[in-house]
Predict the 3D structure of the following.
Amino acid sequence: MTATLTERGTHRAQRDSVARLHGELTRNGLVTWTSGNVSERVPGEDLFVIKGSGVPYDGLSWEGITVCDLDGGVVDGVRRPSSDTDAHAYVYRHMPEVRGQVHTHSPYATAWAARAEEIPCVLTAMADEFGGAIPVGPFALIGDDSIGRGIVATLRGSRSPAVLMRNHGVFTVGASARDAVKAAVMTEDVARTVHLSRQLGEPLPISPGHVDALYARYQNVYGQ
């Protein structure tokens, strides 16, 4: 993928919004240096916007966000897009309900990924947000759509908006980029809490019926 030589400024408002959302990743300790990214589908078009590869978070503006087509090709922007672009593009092509994605290497959740171990549903907050355990996806190399294939294969048929890609890190999806960011924040929070619980003993699972009830209440009743 090669970035265009000129910046036309298309989708500037959405690019600005996605740039600002990256601040939530740093505020919540989910990324280190320039790792990680947020992307979002462009409404009504076969396009998405994604952070440029290796672009620093400090002072990240709309110009650090690149517009791509659903094959991962650059449509607008002078920044070469994230090395995860082909993975994001694959997810957008195969999961049309997904409108936003996030990738992080947040420490506690990535530690579970390094063990290829799902995070068990032992907290009501997990039942609320994830509808069960946070699953583990297969090992996949970076740079093509292999990660995207693993994400889709793991999350299809799952209520979880998050997947721990083995030996890699966290990928989350949502109905918007903000929803995917929330899922990434919650993934790290529960990964840390369940880890701490296991230092005290074996956490107690929540029954499937109670998980279903908690998930239904949170998804359909909670909030304004």
The CA atoms of residues 195 and 201 lie 10 Å apart. The mean pLDDT is 96. The first strand starts at residue 37 and ends at 41. Helices lie at 12-27, 85-94, 107-114, 124-130, 146-155, 177-200, 208-220.
